[in-house]
Design a protein that fits this description.
Length: 299
Amino acid sequence: MNRFQEMTVFVAVVDAGSFVGAADALGLSRAAVSRLVGELESRLGVRLLHRTTRRLSLTDEGRIFHLRCKAVLAEVEEAEAEAEVSARSGAARGLLKLNVPVTFGLLHLAPLWSEFMAKHPGVVLDITLSDRVVDLVEEGYDLAVRIGRLASSSLIGRQLSSTRMVLCASPGYLAAHGTPRHPRDLADHAVISYSLFSMGEQWEFEGPDGPVSVKVEPRMRTNSGDTCRQAALHDSGIVLQPSFLVGDDLRNGGLVELMPEYRSIELGIYAVYASRQHVSPKVRLLIDHLQRALAARRW
């Protein structure tokens, strides 16, 4: 069933005043035109046209439906015209709906939106901050920024940057509880765990003698990386958090990296969108903007 085709044929019949005229205008057979209008009436459960051997006329319901169909088809035609002009000119315009992670969005993406809007005044940004993995197609997002190891899917991912997971704690915590020397020593320490972490509570490291995996028993769990960071800064325990979040704390001494010879995983930071074909100028230009801004970052 093609509702758009049914509406197009119905409007053509009314405008031409006959099935034959509509068939000629649309390049269809008279039988196809008659069938489509009949299927439309059957689906709606209402008669739209009075048919006689001499002429056609609209019913009251048909008159109302004709006006609404004309309005819908006009909007579709206008949207297609705008899209064609936008694609040909390379201009970015229209609503751009984004989903980005909460902490990364606040710390590193929020400063980038103003510059993009200044360069592309025809774009309206609609930005949702959420650590939930959204369904881009079902929920109508043009683009999402995701951090992690991309699962195999129909989505297209373009890498913007990367971030390293860093094991760290505050000097105050280490002074009170000692410094672990090997990942297995974490069993004797208070661990603050990020509950949305893909590794869960099986933390992975690459050490001098190869990979090491340890099961941690958290003293606290939270779905907020910011909460993990604050707990660590207040001497509550050891965290495994991305360098984009704790990089400044490591530089200023608020947190200390532990066991640097045992490196945890590195995660990609990606712009993810639904299709490689017909990428709109607004999406393409925003990805380019984010890639330029983030490529040189080394947290």
